[in-house]
Specification:
Chain lengths: ~625, ~180
């Protein structure tokens, strides 16, 4: 399938999936529906159609029946091995496809259920079972979630399915509240706790993270049931700010920063995932010390064992290494890969991306060999000795560099013209029935895309896309014109604390404009050339000093909103107030109906500032 | 040899014309705009929410909002970027609503489509797109392949270097090919 065919299939699929396109006048149901729900709070819970209810009911009944049969058949269970006659409710084991000594990533859920029923008091037959392989130290265990009509129960099962534990109940929230001196103000904590249950040699214990208290602190419960304050989350964000420097804010604004609290082979860690930056956008930090845990993974015992068994000596005890996080493998899923660069080959130690359980070893040679069209890249297990290189069996094939040079020559480019380029091998079916190189070349003016046959170097496809048509010198606008574009957009004429700079990267330069107006700080990026207009913009309320005891109650926040409109509480109806403590500026979300119109306010939790107002025009209101 | 990518959408001027009709209260502009732009909005919402029910809600909310705000629309020559920005805001609002009521994304991300015109092949490719691509890859693929944005326009919209967008796009296509 060619790229074009794939794009066409994608487009057609989404067109067919889009509701309402067959209707000649979709505006009628759209606008009439709007009349129905205008001014009302839309329910978040989905209303399913009767057909969907019937389908879900049938599915639940089927699952319940299967689980009932499974529960009956697998009890009692033989501890010495897997239940031979038990129904296999998950994917088959892939133990045999892995090198010796490497654990399987899957196990039949019947075995897990059997262990749970044998060792725990389970007074129901679950309607759904989910399992996840986890790791603590160098031992693996399974976390199994049994669902019984919406109620979920968690069990931890040893990797060999010889023991299972039901999670103990623990007055966790109360203890943490007491330990961190928040009992007088529990609202400073988040609504929910993210918890991690760990199965150790000594039994089960619980670790807990409070992901977002207002000070950015996290806490965990140790195996000794002590509550430990972890490395401040806020400081981790500062580390990222240091990494990205002046681009940090732009990256955060245009991407998303997710912070998870995970277990790894080395202990607890924070995982910071930045979406929207470059490829290397995941960082792991020890949850207590704040140190990066890369070293922990690099010195994993399995790596040392492999190096020793294969007699791989490292010059002067030092070697280069790299770490790739969240590498996608078609068969195994997401992996974390530690790469050791050694003499003529890179050794890739693959760990499960979620559990960091050691999975397998791959290798690649440094030599830029012709691509192998006869099958998958060579892989080596830990028992098969040092890697061997691929034989050159296709003398007519060209090297990557040759393919690149063919494209350069065809485009009439030299290295001085090129901003960036990429050459990758497409060993899939290939649009023309042959393996080929995908090449894109970026210059300051154009983007070139090539597909070049690996055998013989024939150009299979060529595209050229002009990047800029407006970058002629005469089309450049002045900074004042750029400012005027931003002001026109907001329909304002005067601002405070104005700053205009030229910013950007090697690909795109723009005016960066920031100013303050009516309690908000605005940032605009405006293109340097006519026709580009506003590239991005955002607004944020001006930060004001917040007294520590300046927390507003719901009533006070509501009064701020009412005072803003000049109306009284008795005149409103359908009042809803929710609190958003996790926001960057914690706030109350207030909505109500007044004179048949819906009003929405966001009032800051501390200081009672109006962050946002959504109010229709109503006669008599200011 | 020219194999230039054909944009599935009409020109920005045509789209601006329909928005101008809406600004004048003429719903015919909404009919035309919905017919050509709804797949882009729906696909974009689906790429963020991974749930067809929510994506349908966002689709409706977006076009109602476009109609209501057509009078305040100022053409910058990028009407689809404006529409998709509205859609993106509704998506994140939706995610926030889910978070408030304690619904995890994993609970919510049950994908089901029931449009009559859909074939099993359509469902397969959409499901592959949702299940095998990361969020940024999904957005880039949909913005380019479905909505017809150029790579450099996507780079501007997402705040990414152009080379990153290109890499992610080609990597995403390879993943799709490998799983179809």
């Amino acid at each position: 399938m060619t790229k074009r065919q794939l794009e066409k299939r994608l487009r057609k699929a989404f067109e067919n999936a889009t509701p309402g396109r067959a209707i000649s006048t979709p505006s009628q149901p759209l606008l009439s529906d709007r009349q129905d729900w205008e001014g009302a709070v839309k329910p978040v819970k989905k209303v399913r159609t009767p057909i969907q209810f019937r389908a879900i009911g049938a599915l639940a009944a089927t699952v319940a029946l299967v689980m009932l049969v499974a529960g009956v058949l697998i009890l009692p269970r033989d501890n010495t091995g897997p239940a031979a006659s038990g129904p296999q409710t998950s994917t088959p084991q892939n133990q045999t496809s892995l090198p010796d000594g490497f654990a399987s990533s899957t196990i039949p859920s019947a075995n897990l259920l059997s262990a749970i029923y044998e060792h725990c008091d389970v007074p129901f037959v679950p309607t759904q079972v989910e399992q996840e392989l986890k790791l603590w130290g160098d031992k693996a265990y399974y976390e199994v979630e049994l669902e019984y009509y919406g109620q979920k129960y968690i069990y931890l099962v040893t990797e060999d399915c010889t023991m299972a534990y039901a999670l103990p109940t623990h007055p966790l929230m109360e203890e943490i509240l007491a330990a961190v001196n928040y009992p007088e103000d529990p609202s400073r904590l988040p609504h929910t706790l993210e918890d991690e249950w760990v199965l150790t040699d000594e039994g089960v214990f619980l670790a807990v993270a409070i992901a977002n208290d207002v000070d950015g602190n996290c806490y965990m419960l140790t195996p000794e049931l002590e509550i430990v304050e972890t490395y401040p989350l806020a400081s981790l964000r500062l580390i990222l700010a240091d990494i990205f420097g002046p681009y940090y804010e732009q990256i955060i604004l245009n991407g998303t920063l997710e912070v998870d609290f995970n277990l790894t082979a080395g202990g607890f860690c924070f995982e910071l995932e930045l979406t929207g930056g470059d490829d290397s956008d995941v960082w792991l930090y020890d949850a207590v010390t704040g140190e990066q845990i890369t070293a922990t993974l690099n010195y994993h015992p399995k790596i040392q064992e492999y190096l020793r068994e294969n007699d791989i000596t490292l010059p002067n005890g030092h070697y280069d290494f790299d770490i790739w996080l969240n590498v996608y493998f078609p068969e195994q899923g997401t992996m974390t890969v530690v790469v050791y660069k050694h003499e003529d080959a890179d050794y890739l130690f693959c760990f499960d991306g979620n559990t960091l359980k050691f999975h397998r070893v791959l290798f690649k040679t440094y030599t830029d060999l012709p691509i192998d069209t006869t099958g998958p890249a060579p892989t080596v297990g830990n028992t098969e000795g040092p890697p061997v290189t691929t034989e050159d069996t296709q003398p007519a094939e060209i090297y990557k560099n040759e393919a690149r040079d063919i494209a350069f020559e065809h485009a009439g480019l030299t290295y001085l013209d090129i901003v960036d380029y990429s050459v990758t091998v497409d060993k899939a079916d290939g649009p023309y029935g042959v393996t080929h190189y995908d090449i894109w070349i970026l210059t300051y003016d154009d983007l070139y895309e090539y597909e070049i046959a690996a055998e013989g170097g024939r150009i299979l496809k060529y595209e050229k896309e002009s990047l800029e048509t407006a970058t002629l010198p005469g089309n450049r606008i002045s900074s004042q014109q750029a400012l005027q574009i931003a002001l026109d957009y907001l329909r304002i004429t005067a601002v405070d604390n104005l700053e205009i700079t030229v910013d950007g990267d090697e690909y795109k330069i723009h005016y960066a404009i920031s100013f303050e107006h009516a309690g908000y700080k605005y940032k605009f990026e405006v293109g340097l050339y006519k026709g580009e207009g506003i590239l991005s913009w955002n607004e944020a309320p001006l930060e004001l000093p917040t007294p520590p005891d300046g927390k507003f109650t719901e009533e006070q926040a509501l009064q701020v909103a009412l005072d803003h409109l000049g109306i009284k509480a008795e005149t409103i109806e359908d009042l809803e107030i929710t609190i958003n403590p996790d926001a960057e500026v914690p706030y109350y979300d207030i909505s109500f109906i007044f004179m048949d119109h819906e009003f929405e306010f966001e009032i800051s939790l501390y200081g009672g500032r109006i962050l946002r107002v959504k109010a229709p025009e109503v006669d008599g209101l200011s | 040899m020219s194999l230039l990518h054909k944009n599935p959408l009409p020109s920005a001027r045509t789209l601006d014309g329909w928005i101008a009709q809406m600004a004048a209260g003429n719903s015919a502009g909404l009919d035309e705009l919905y017919r050509v732009a709804a797949p882009s909005v729906f696909a974009y919402a689906l790429s963020i929410l991974k749930n067809s029910h929510d994506a349908e809600d966002v689709l409706q909310d977006t076009f109602v909002s476009v109609f209501d705000n057509a009078a305040s629309y100022r053409s910058q020559g990028k009407p689809m970027a404006w529409i998709l920005t509205i859609a993106r805001n509704f998506c994140y609002k939706r995610l926030e609503q889910l978070r408030r009521v304690g619904t995890t994304l994993e609970d919510w991300q049950s994908f089901s489509l029931s449009q009559n015109k859909m074939t099993s092949d359509d469902e397969l490719i959409i499901r592959t797109c949702l299940n095998f691509l990361a969020e940024d890859q999904r957005q880039i693929v949909i913005l380019h392949a479905v909505s017809g944005f150029k790579h450099r326009e996507i780079a501007q919209m997402l705040g990414l270097p152009l080379s990153t967008v290109l890499s992610k796009y080609h990597r995403a296509l390879k993943i799709l090919k490998a799983n179809l």
